[in-house]
Amino acid sequence: MKKITIAIDGFSSTGKSTLAKQLANHLGYVYVDSGAMYRAVTLFAMQNGYIGTDFFDKQTLINSLHYIKLHFQFNGDLGFAEMYLNDVNVEKEIRSIEVSSFVSKVAEVSEVRLKLVEQQQEMGKKRGIVMDGRDIGTVVFPNAELKVFMTASPETRAQRRFDELQAKGDTVTYDEVFKNVQERDYIDTHRADSPLIKAADAIEIDNSELSKAAQFDKVLELVQKAS
Ligand code: C5P
Questions:
Q1: Can you tell me the distance from the alpha carbon of 193 to that of 179, in angstroms, rounded to the nearest whole number?
Q2: Which residue puts its alpha carbon closest to atom 11 of ligand 1?
Q3: Among 213, 225, 227, 221, CA closest to 19
């Protein structure tokens, strides 16, 4: 079986990363969570006071982009790579509801996208990669052999994210999470640069009623056909 490039796009909390990690482990591929990169840039902007509840100093963030160094490092205990911002492990911080509430605004900035897309394409050069995000099949890897577009109802997605955050001890409410999911969907699908859309050749999977195991089997079959 030849090594291929797998692009998984879709709305927030559709289980993209769970599926992508499962596939990468099974196939011996590299997994890249592109959302983690947008989240890390957002954390940088928050730490430096460039973004907050009612302000966003885009220009200063753009001018500071060269100070941002991102890399992934594999954690054998967890079985996946964690995100590092300027050599600091930020895997936990980038999943907070605060970062989630600002990330789509940061992801609208073309200069940010340009920097991250370049790095993502570099990581994909060796093939044998599964990357998940919003523009992987449309912009990052338009020639990917397999493109999957995942959807689920907003309620299902908010409940999943809420359960995940609660399990981590976050004191967030379901309503906050539901609002965040809806806001991000809106910004992600309406932005001018690389909006979230299904690539013409992507295969759509609605997993509202699909178990993780059934979904995995279905996608694995698609991988076998594409390899
Ligand atoms: O995948 P995740 O939910 O962690 O992504 C966080 C946010 O990062 C998304 O809501 C979106 O605004 C942005 N993003 C993006 N393009 C990607 C991946 C994520 O714009 N390829």
A1: 23
A2: 104
A3: 213
9 lines ligand 1 (CB under 6 A): no
The CA distance from 226 to 219, in Å, is: 10
Question: Does the annotation place 153 within a ligand binding site?
Answer: no
CA gap 195, 54 in Å, rounded: 23
Tokens for 90? 């930020």
Annotated binding residue at 52?
no
Cα angle 210, 213, 215 (rounded to 5 degrees) comes to 50
Query: What residues are paired with 211 via a beta bridge?
Result: none
Pairing of strands 203-206, 146-151: parallel
pLDDT by residue (tens digit) across 128-171? Answer: 999 999 999 999 999 999 999 999 999 999 999 999 889 989 89
Residue of the nearest CA to atom 16 in ligand 1?
Answer: 134
